[in-house]
């Protein structure tokens, strides 16, 4: 008996993403990094905006206040939370105040803090497949059970299937719009119907079913697509986000939870997320990064850059015969796997030095994910391989 | 059903430290912060050393390498881990290499990552009381059960009681030297005996019992007291530390796990902590802070400053009649509670505007903790109150 048997098993069955990453590293070693087209990781090639660097330097130059690297309330610096609350209030019209905000170690930290605050052993968490594979692990971390619910062909919530999946054990539903891995954005009418469904279902089961809205891609939306706030359509919503994608800061681990101010349990949720942030060992989100991002809430993401990549990639693959729901945000394509077997097709793509992730890794076999947050030249040079790969199966 | 019933209960029974903190905040509001002597929190008043600020500014001025805020291996930046491994190798003579190091979100993150990697449901973790109260919560987070084992009158490991507490379910023992809350430092002979005991016990139960050595106070030792590395006395040791105390950076959440290079399971532990760092939602330790602390491993803590505080506080309280094991490190005193009832005495101290934490909060009733990482004037002005408080009980 060395390491945990449970962890040992989980590692064996672990994320395809990381597995592909390692195989990619090997392929790059053999062929040279420039000759491998790696679409496996949602790690933005885009650098943080100049405003980030400027703000960081300005803080360090100006600030001699004692205690700036010290402990703080577990939910984060009050001044930072006030700024974020003000931003969200301006965005949504909802009366967010600092006490509704818990600063977290990225969105991954925020999701764990939230699930720890909500779940008792055996509680069920619904996720709409395809979904970010770590949701299942996060629910399990805190004794919960993830139940995937299929979406429609357009990757939108299937309300009938969702209603059928809700039981008295259902504690929460996680949604993610703009979506990883599909790039789909949930429009207002979908969120309206979803909100209605959750109100009715909560009444039926006799307790609030929380909507956990994982929104790190909110600012990356194309063709002027509006990204409505799910919080506006259902009051028992926890908005969770990070600045990993919009400010390209994934390594700095900075994000937050925003509890709907009108949620039945707003105060209890705030107290609980403050507590679980501590007991999970995060203690608080990194202090310096809290202060930096507080003033960058209005900073836009590099939407034009990502849209250029999508407009390079999506039409070309479609022209080759790939079937793809056109993404309206984030930086992923989720095509159907030609031949139907996603694992086989992803293995086949390696013949052309292309790395992708099978849809199986997102609870949705038969598709594969391409993360196109890469240099345009990588997309361009990969196209010939994609063409040949689908032709091989014709 | 709103928040988790389990969390709701845990909050009710929660850490005395935080409770005292809130009462302290109230008292400060009433009396003015300068007039309350708050010894409840291990939040250093000492600012980070100048070398920290210099390094941070230098990094920002010099560095234009792309990807410095991007994702990275979950265990952290390889260059950073190489520097830390080199430092530990120089300190201990053990063949640490980068792959033995997992960068973590502080020591609290490191403890959770380690326990998640080690524990299966029902596994037992031993801790020597008095101990940092969060150990129990951390073990519970991952399905483990904390079993406190009393120490000797001098707060050193009681080897007989420890041996008696070990069962086939025992997976790990957590130690903490220099110790919170006692300030005790474990000398070589104690660690030698402890290592021998663990070797024998591991053979007896048929699996390695891991020694988790929580060492954030290593650099804060007085009177030139040597702080031996537990890793030198037992190979199945995981050293866990942070720079919260030695560099006064608790808000920045930066620390690491160092796996003993000769541990039976070194490679499996490294893979598992990489994995659990990810699945717990930490993902990786904050990138910028990793790079800052990599070059500050040799930086000394403000030992003289803390020793001055101890030498102001300990003799005075002893002269008033308080019974205290003289601390050799960290920044805590753990006196016996006059009258024997720690909760009653801590409440009594409030009469003199003194805030302390009952030993009950450290699994050891009958004592109380004073965190003296405060301004010297706070210690000086508090003394009269301490004198009166013990006289009241005479």
List the keywords.
globular; 13 helices; 3-stranded antiparallel beta sheet; 2 domains; homodimer; 394 residues; Aspartate Aminotransferase, domain 1; alpha/beta; Aspartate Aminotransferase, domain 2; 41% helix
CATH class of the largest domain in chain A: Alpha Beta
Number of helices of chain A: 13
- Known CATH architecture of the largest domain in chain A: 3-Layer(aba) Sandwich
Name of the CATH superfamily of the largest domain in chain A: Type I PLP-dependent aspartate aminotransferase-like (Major domain)
CATH fold-level label of the largest domain in chain A: Aspartate Aminotransferase, domain 2
Oligomer: homodimer
What is the radius of gyration of chain A? 21 Å
Rough outline of chain A: globular
Characterize the biggest β-sheet of chain A.
Answer: 7 strands, mixed
User: Structural class of the helices, strands and pairings of chain A?
Assistant: alpha/beta
Helix content estimate of chain A? 40-55%
Characterise this structure:
2 copies of one chain form a homodimer. By secondary structure, chain A is α/β, with parallel strands linked by helices. Chain A folds into 2 domains: 5-48 and 302-392, Aspartate Aminotransferase, domain 1; 51-294, Type I PLP-dependent aspartate aminotransferase-like (Major domain) (Aspartate Aminotransferase, domain 2), CATH 3.40.640. The first copy, chain A, has helices at 5-12, 16-31, 50-62, 78-92, 106-118, 134-141, 159-165, 188-205, 266-279, 287-294, 303-320, 342-349, 376-392, and strands spanning 37-38, 101-104, 124-129, 145-150, 170-175, 210-214, 237-242, 255-259, 332-333, 354-355, 357-358, 368-371. In chain A, the strands form 3 sheets. In chain A, strands 2-8-7-6-5-3-4 form a 7-stranded mixed sheet, sandwiched between helices. In chain A, helix 4 runs parallel beside helix 10 (287-294), helix 5 crosses helix 6 (134-141) and helix 5 crosses helix 9. The radius of gyration of chain A is 21 Å and the shape is globular. Chain A starts with a helix and ends with a helix. The model of chain A has no long low-confidence stretch (mean pLDDT 94). Chains A and B meet through helix 1, helix 3, helix 5, helix 6 and helix 9 of A and helix 1, helix 3, helix 5, helix 6 and helix 9 of B.
């Amino acid at each position: 008996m060395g390491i945990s048997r449970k962890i040992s098993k989980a590692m064996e069955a672990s994320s395809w993403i990381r597995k592909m990453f390692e195989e990619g590293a090997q392929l790059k070693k053999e062929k040279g990094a420039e000759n491998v087209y790696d679409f496996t990781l949602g790690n933005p090639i885009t650098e943080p905006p100049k405003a980030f660097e400027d703000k960081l330097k300005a803080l360090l130059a100006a600030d001699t206040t004692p205690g700036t690297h010290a402990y703080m309330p577990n939910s984060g610096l009050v001044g930072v939370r006030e700024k974020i609350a003000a931003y969200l209030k301006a965005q949504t019209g909802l009366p967010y105040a600092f006490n509704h905000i818990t600063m977290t170690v990225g969105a991954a930290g925020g999701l764990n803090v939230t699930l720890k605050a909500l779940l008792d052993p055996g509680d069920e968490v619904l996720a709409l497949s395809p979904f970010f594979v770590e949701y299942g692990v996060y629910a399990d971390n805190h004794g919960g059970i993830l139940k995937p619910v299929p979406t429609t062909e357009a990757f939108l919530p299937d309300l009938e299937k969702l209603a059928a999946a809700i039981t008295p054990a259902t504690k929460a539903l996680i949604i993610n719009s703009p979506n990883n891995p599909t790039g789909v954005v949930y429009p207002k009418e979908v969120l309206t119907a979803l909100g209605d469904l959750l109100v009715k279902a909560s009444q039926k089961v006799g307790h609030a079913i929380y909507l956990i809205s994982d929104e790190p891609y909110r600012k990356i939306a194309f063709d002027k697509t509006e990204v409505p706030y799910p919080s506006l359509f259902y009051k028992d919503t926890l908005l969770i986000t990070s600045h990993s994608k919009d400010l390209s800061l994934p390594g700095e681990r900075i994000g937050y939870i925003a509890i709907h101010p009108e949620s039945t349990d707003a105060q209890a949720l705030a107290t609980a997320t403050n507590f679980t942030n501590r007991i999970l060992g995060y203690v608080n989100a990194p202090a310096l990064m809290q202060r930096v991002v507080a003033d960058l809430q209005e900073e836009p993401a590099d939407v034009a850059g990502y849209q250029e990549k999508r407009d390079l990639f999506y039409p070309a693959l479609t022209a080759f015969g790939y079937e793809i729901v056109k993404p309206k945000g984030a930086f992923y394509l989720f095509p159907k796997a030609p031949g139907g077997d996603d694992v086989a097709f992803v293995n086949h793509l390696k013949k052309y030095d292309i790395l992708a992730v099978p849809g199986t890794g997102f609870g949705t076999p038969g598709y594969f994910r391409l993360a196109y947050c890469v240099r345009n030249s990588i997309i361009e040079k990969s196209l010939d391989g994609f063409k040949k790969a689908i032709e091989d199966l014709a």
